[in-house]
Design a protein that fits this description.
The complex is a heterodimer of chains A (202) and B (398). With 202 residues, chain A is of the alpha+beta class. Chain A contains eight helices and five strands. Chain A has one domain. A five-stranded antiparallel sheet of chain A has the order 1-2-3-4-5. Chain B is built from 14 helices and twelve strands. In chain B, the strands form two sheets. In chain B, strands 1, 3, 4, 5, 6, 7, 8, 9, 11 and 12 form a ten-stranded mixed sheet that branches. In chain B, strands 2-10 form a two-stranded antiparallel ribbon. Classes of the chains: A alpha+beta (202), B alpha+beta (398). The interface between A and B is large, with 41 and 41 residues.
Chain lengths: 202, 398
């Protein structure tokens, strides 16, 4: 038994694992799902990637809709996105989906709780590294996104940062952190596009 | 007058197809033999290399929970114990120690991680000694820190992916609100380093006010050192815990010994197959040439001439087969490596099959020795042929 233990230790220390990009999961799905969908009775987890759903052509389409190119080492086709389908008894009542978005001082994990039609119920920052993170994570700021959907973000350009329509009313809660405010809007738009392109919402 | 060697070569060429098939058989046996010997040689050195890549054979931590990572998981980063940095000099003073690297693990509560906050851990390292010990760490981007007190960080691949950091990006140290620059992102290594954020130890000590403290010391001892004995020495230091790789090394040695027995058994089977194959081919050739050998003897060929002729044929066949097989094993080394890797439950990272010229020469020598031994009986049989009886019969009998 001792030998097996040591061998396992060796394998853990020195295993040549399967190397793939990592996605964005809820830290504690059971607790987080209950909090984001108080009436839910269960959920199903699926893993989807752009590579799997359409490859380069789909990535190009998503980039066009986003109005920005995928950039950096980590925004790649093979990133597995975790989609939580939420149920109340046997009825689907919505989704939770998160994306990793590059922020000024660290990664921002932008999670959306959506109804079956793709309307935002809750915006949840699972992680944010910024001196003003508290302001971004406050209900005052996040509640402004309630009721918005893809159509409200369609005209938003992450490159220029110009906000129109319902989006224009949302103000940056921390004027010094413009980069993270824009990153948030980009992350939400990308999140909504992915949910449509993966076939979960319309 | 042609030499015996020339006649032997001519005989081999006369029955071309049979000779080629025999050579293929010998070559296949040689391939198996060289590959197995190459595996035997490569597996051990590869496993040892993996152990060396772990960086240090002994890890010294403050008494308590022996693993910093376990402490972080069990106590949420609050239970880390420190040792005075002076311990590094004490350890270094021992002549059996080749290299020492101090480390400082520091965990910080980040309120903006998850719903109720979470722990972010940093590893403070010495930019001079740590990279020398962890030679397997390679960079995806950038390099190690420039200065021992630089406000810079190197991210393990997964840590960088989580934080979406690349070289040139800024990173904010939680709690301290100090901005640092990312100067390197490591390639995936399959180890815990993938999830680590490295900072120069002086920077970490200064930023989080843990000056003069370390949480662990990595020790690399000389190859000849008896690690178990050295561990006992370390326990004489006050309030330390020793975590050693000696047990892992022992397990590896056992694995190597088991693999060696297995490999040698298979090699022996390969040798026996080659031996029987060679003997069969040469014997068949002798039986077919029964009359011919009888005529040679009646024309004045001595018993020793016939014996040498058949023996040379055998040696020639095994030599050509041995050379072909050795070349084949060298060409197919990568494929053999992949094949073995696919069946082994754990395989080290570097080459499993290591074939060099010495090994190939050894294998050719073994195969030729087999030829010499296997050729004795057919040669002896041929040498004993009686000319009159042989000329009368069409074929020989065993």
């Amino acid at each position: 038994m001792k030998r097996i233990g040591i061998l396992i230790l060796l394998l853990v220390i020195y295993t040549t694992g399967i190397y793939a990009a990592t996605g964005c999961d809820l830290n504690e799905p059971d607790r987080d799902v209950k909090r984001l969908f108080p009436g839910s009775t269960g959920f199903k987890t699926s893993y989807v990637s752009i590579q799997q759903k359409g490859g380069k052509a789909l990535q190009t389409k998503i980039e066009q809709r986003l109005g920005d190119k995928f950039t950096g080492m980590y925004e790649t086709m093979d990133v597995p996105y975790t989609v939580y389908e939420i149920y109340k008894d046997k009825q689907g009542i919505g989704y939770i989906h998160g994306v990793n978005q590059k922020g000024q001082y660290g990664g921002i994990q932008v999670f959306l709780a959506l109804d079956p039609k793709g309307v935002i119920k809750t915006l949840y920052y699972q992680k944010m590294t910024n001196q003003s993170a508290k302001a971004f994570r406050s209900d005052t700021f996040t509640n402004q996104f309630k009721g918005l959907s893809m159509k409200d973000f369609a005209a938003y350009s992450p490159v220029t940062g110009k906000q129109d329509g319902a989006l224009a009313k949302i103000k940056n809660p921390a004027p010094k952190a413009v980069q993270d405010f824009r990153a948030t809007l980009r992350g939400i738009k990308k999140n909504l596009i992915l949910m449509q392109e993966f076939g979960y919402t319309k | 007058m042609p030499s015996l060697f020339g006649i032997a070569w001519k005989n081999i060429r006369r029955k071309r197809l049979r000779s080629i098939l025999t050579i293929i058989g010998i070559a296949l046996s040689t391939w198996v033999l060289v590959s197995l010997l190459g595996f035997n040689q490569g597996y051990e050195s590869s496993l040892n290399k993996d152990i060396d890549n772990l960086g240090f054979q002994v890890l010294l931590t403050a008494k308590g929970c022996p693993y910093e990572a376990a402490t972080l998981m069990l106590k949420g980063g609050t239970g880390l114990k420190y040792m005075p940095e002076s311990i590094v000099d004490t350890v270094k003073a021992n002549p059996e120690v080749e290299e020492v690297t101090p480390m400082l693990m520091h965990a910080v509560f980040d309120p903006n991680k998850g719903e109720e906050g979470g722990i972010t851990a940093f590893l403070g390292i010495d930019p001079v000694t740590y990279p020398r010990m962890k030679t397997y760490l390679q960079f995806q981007q950038g390099k190690w820190f420039n200065q021992p007190q630089a406000l810079e960080a190197v991210f393990g691949y997964e840590a960088a992916e989580l934080e979406q950091r690349e070289v040139g990006d800024s990173y904010l140290l939680p709690e301290a609100d100090v901005e640092i620059k990312v100067v390197g992102v490591l390639k995936r290594s399959g180890t815990q380093d993938d999830g680590t954020i490295f900072l120069p130890i002086r920077t970490l000590q200064k930023v989080y006010k843990v000056n003069g403290q370390v949480t662990s010391v990595g020790i690399k001892v000389n190859k000849s050192t008896d690690i178990a004995k050295y561990e006992e020495e370390l326990y004489k230091l006050p309030d330390v815990q020793v975590v050693s790789m000696a047990q892992v090394k022992q397990t590896i040695s056992n694995l190597v010994a088991t693999a060696r027995v297995m490999v040698m058994s298979i090699a022996l089977i390969a040798i026996l197959i080659a031996m029987v194959g060679v003997m069969n081919t040469v014997l068949m050739s002798v039986l077919e040439r029964w009359q011919e050998i009888g005529i040679m003897k009646s024309m004045g060929a001595m018993t020793s001439h016939i014996f040498k002729l058949i023996w040379f044929e055998t040696i020639l066949l095994t030599f050509v087969g041995g050379v072909v097989g050795s070349v084949m094993s060298w060409i197919l080394a990568t494929a053999t490596d992949k094949l073995i890797r696919s069946v082994l439950p754990y395989s080290p990272t570097s080459a499993l099959v290591q074939i060099d010229i010495i090994l190939a020469l050894k294998a050719i020598g073994i195969i030729m020795f087999i030829g010499i031994i296997s050729g004795i009986y057919p040669a002896w049989k041929a040498a004993r042929i009686r000319p009159i009886e042989a000329i009368r019969s069409t074929e020989g009998e065993l």
